[in-house]
Amino acid sequence: MGIFSMLRRDESAKKTARQAMKEAKSTKGSAPADSGGAVQRLIDSVRDIGLDGKLTYSSAADVARKAQRGRARKRPEKAVRRIVRSHRRGVTVAGFLTGLGGAITLPVLLPTNVMEFYIQSTRMVGAIAAVRGYDLDDPEIRVRVLAALVGEESGEVLKNIGLGPVAGVAARGVAGRLPSTPQSQVASAVGSRILKRFALRSSRLFGKAIPGLGGVLGAMSDRSQLNKIAEAAKRSFPQVS
């Protein structure tokens, strides 16, 4: 089952995505006023569904195990390539379907696509981290997964909350280094950035898009953004020695 199908069955997820988009527009890119806002709830859902799975949606750990089958068992980078390829296909198809109807269907499909894109991205980043030896139950690792969602700005986000590059040594027991900043504030900062970027991308690509062309542009944009997130994930989670 695809994520679009899953979200059609999860009304709370769809409602949260729509509310987050409205909140992002009303705050004009600034951080949500409180940690219980729609953007915060969206990021919490993205993190939990992407990493832990939901309904028939596999967890990041399950995806990592599947990618490590066969010859990839002793070749982590082969497994990483498998993970990126499969998620690249997923967001490309979803981006195409979202923009296929142009400006007519975009207002209905865009909130679900926002949720779907970042769930896929979160699962991809988490699976890469798992393949390279990191514990996805560790609070700090979960924060670092979220930070990777902003792509090339991930290092800046981590630096702003007091976290430098992770040393590719210990896969477990790193939560003690997590700054005193509540995780909700970290998620809020990441959420504001990714929604602002997504809104900007959408207005540029779909504002004057005609049916058909919008699908191509949406697929290309989501594919490009996922590639940036994949590169950030590879940098953020070096192989554990």
Structural class: mainly alpha
Give me the Rg, rounded: 17 Å
Main sheet attributes: strand count, strand direction, barrel closure = none
Q: Helical content, roughly?
A: 55-70%
Order of helices and strands: HHHHHHHHHH
**In DSSP terms, counting alpha (H) and pi (I) runs of 4 or more, how many helices?**
10
Straight-line N-to-C gap? 36 Å
Outline? globular
* Mean pLDDT over the full residue set: 76
Number of domains: 1
The strand count comes to: 0
Poorly predicted sequence stretches spanning 5 or more consecutive residues = 29-35, 168-173
- Assembly state: single chain
Beta-strand content bin: under 5%
Q: How would you describe the overall organization of this protein?
A:
There is one protein chain. By secondary structure, this protein is an all-alpha fold. It has one domain (3-236). Helix content is 67%, strand content 0%. The chain is built from ten helices and no strands. The chain has helices at 3-9, 11-27, 38-52, 60-67, 76-99, 106-131, 139-148, 154-160, 183-206, 213-236. Mean pLDDT is 76; it is low at 29-35 and 168-173.
